[in-house]
Amino acid sequence: MKPDPRRAVRPLGSHAAAARHAAHLRALNIDRVLSVAMDRPGTFTRAELIEATGLSAPTVGSLSSHLIQTGVIRDLGTGPSRGGRRPSLMEFNARHGYVAGIDLGPTRTRLAVADLRGDPIAHRIVSTPSEEEPAQLLGKIAAALRSLMDEAHVPVEGLLLVVAGAPGAVDIKNGTVAFAPNLPRWTDVAMRLLLQRALGGTPVMVENDVNLALLGEHWRGAARGHDTCAFIFVGTGIGAAILIDRELHRGNHFMAGEIGMMCMGPQYIDMDFGTRGCLETLAGLEALRARWPQAARDDPAGWLTDLIAAADAGDPHARQAVGETARLIGIATANVVTVVDPSLIVLGGAMFAQAGPLVGHVRAVVESIARTPTQVVVSALGKEAPLAGCLLVAAMEARKHLRQSLRSAAGLVRMVQ
Amino acid sequence: MKPDPRRAVRPLGSHAAAARHAAHLRALNIDRVLSVAMDRPGTFTRAELIEATGLSAPTVGSLSSHLIQTGVIRDLGTGPSRGGRRPSLMEFNARHGYVAGIDLGPTRTRLAVADLRGDPIAHRIVSTPSEEEPAQLLGKIAAALRSLMDEAHVPVEGLLLVVAGAPGAVDIKNGTVAFAPNLPRWTDVAMRLLLQRALGGTPVMVENDVNLALLGEHWRGAARGHDTCAFIFVGTGIGAAILIDRELHRGNHFMAGEIGMMCMGPQYIDMDFGTRGCLETLAGLEALRARWPQAARDDPAGWLTDLIAAADAGDPHARQAVGETARLIGIATANVVTVVDPSLIVLGGAMFAQAGPLVGHVRAVVESIARTPTQVVVSALGKEAPLAGCLLVAAMEARKHLRQSLRSAAGLVRMVQ
DNA sequence: GATAATAGTAAACCGCTTTAATTAAGTCTT
DNA sequence: AAGACTTAATTAAAGCGGTTTACTATTATC
Question: Is nucleic acid strand C under 7 Å from B18's C-beta?
Fold first, then answer.
């Protein structure tokens, strides 16, 4: 382990094994500059970097030229003067790499390619019938993503990361889908492995789709500025996602927020719980449909709209069906509010997509129970929320990785020369 | 804002405004060494610091002498040889400062003084009848703390921080007790301000006592190693504390975990909720007592023991009272498990202090509902848990503050000389 | 057009850490 | 018991990187 004192003299300016901790300082500063640069929506100057980072002008100058050389930052020439020498404008090169998002759904899957800001470049919807084998579906999705990138002239080798969302219990550590209630074939599927293989080795991350929807809403939707909030998804299944201090809370077994299994009262506990007594079976879409006898006569897609219309018109049966459902969802929501105390609850999923009045019911129930002034709003991004979350996570992770690789490659690139 | 170039020549070796960012590097390393030193339970050598911090020998040497000079680290002379020159032993000086903890209770208040490891030096219990004015009580507590320190020969000026726990809603930002269900006089009490004044200016932090109990259990009790877990407190009131990744989760209005207000089913929602329909009124100590007609005849302290004994003996009334209570607590616990997905639940409070069998009931209910294998155990520290949490928080915060002050005072202290 | 303000670069300096060499004080082997 | 080897800690020299200071370039303002 001892270094051989007789080893070859280190060449002047050699990068390897340079003073480790002075280099660490430089790495920190590269990170600082890059963070500022990436978060700026538009162009910026060296002077602005000095202001924002607190570093001195020569340091910022040196780091800027280094980062321009690597291509992460682009030089845009001189800008308008503000009463003196004209500044040279720079911009974070959001196309220094690309990311993709995949929102796997029970019948349709949404794809998108985006730049490093997360801004979508192209998107597409492919049909993914749940009868097909997961491996086949993932192959189909990968092929669609490739053709999408081709059409958008995004180079394959530029794809840095793909984030995929799946409904159900996702083990983000192993990248597997443990089980998905509405996708019976998706049990213990190594989604990350299969996708990564089908994509020729591109890194893949897998996450629960409700979690991604919440991140999407927090980024560009109804939850902007709410750093501790929750998303309550009600469709055929019921689930919640929880954001705490801007971080997803997933729980010890990746089961945090799986409120479909919540017990709604002592009277339900002796039933065969899980098939009859839990929230999902009492207040999911199927349960609501069962409360509305006319549903069977209508088409499978439009019954909810009809039910809501009937309730609005004053039909007592419809009103009761909606009221009972909203009451249960409201209690569950209030329980989340009581335990987590978020500043906002976002309601989403098919139950709320067309059913505006339901939101009001739920809000009223929450307000009558909870002791905190928690806002209850409906999703702003709707079906696009999980995909937006995919792109956000992908862009953020890719940027983090980029910063790390630039830090460790902190060369000596002396100014000019 | 521009520095005057003609300003007086800076004296050689002046600390102020030295090269800012090289000094920052030193500050980081001081922090690193101190963190290692503080976390070592016993003595350590320079060689061990080199190993643990990854820094070079000269750096560790320089930092060690500096820290010994300041007194945070003590030199213990040479230790036993391990086949070469004998190392010089050092030790974190846990008495470089002191902290105190105060666990305010409805009838009794626990006090303790501890060193910077959080190890108690002396403790005491003072009676604090809830009829008295908060300001008076706090004065009494402060006086008791002073006399306790006096007896233990702890210098007053060495007291760095006091952490106090209170039952009820505590605003840790402002250091106020918004309200405490069992302490009617404690509404909007500026506890931090009053205590700090009564103690002559010593910094004070205030925190909810259930939160502190959870931290105590995580530190030295039943929750050791469980970085995401919860404490469910059941006494006259009911409340929960939530730990997520070793950090307390307090919520947006400091109301996270206030499950006393949890709604236990749709049938309760139309009652005047809060006084009849919520968990606390259905399953708190008072509710259990009401379910047991014989309670009135017994003494106010021992009825719970008698009730449990009767239930154990097979008394059907007693069994039903216990069963109904445990079922409700179990559902609430399961709701917490569902939402948070912790690895462990700790049950504490008067309800479980003498009532071992109740824990089994609750565990069974949780297991029948929750879909995750979450352990349910009883508190290991009992009534001492909040005080332990006080001392932990106080010691940790004091150490953090100490590290910061030593970092910013990173002098030039050249070795020897 | 002189002046002041803004933007950026070059050179000197300085603190901190590292590597390398040295001192110190033992244990182990033959 | 003498020499060889280990382990611990200090001293010396060298280099890296950031800041300060000084200087150049460019342009709006008076």
Answer: yes
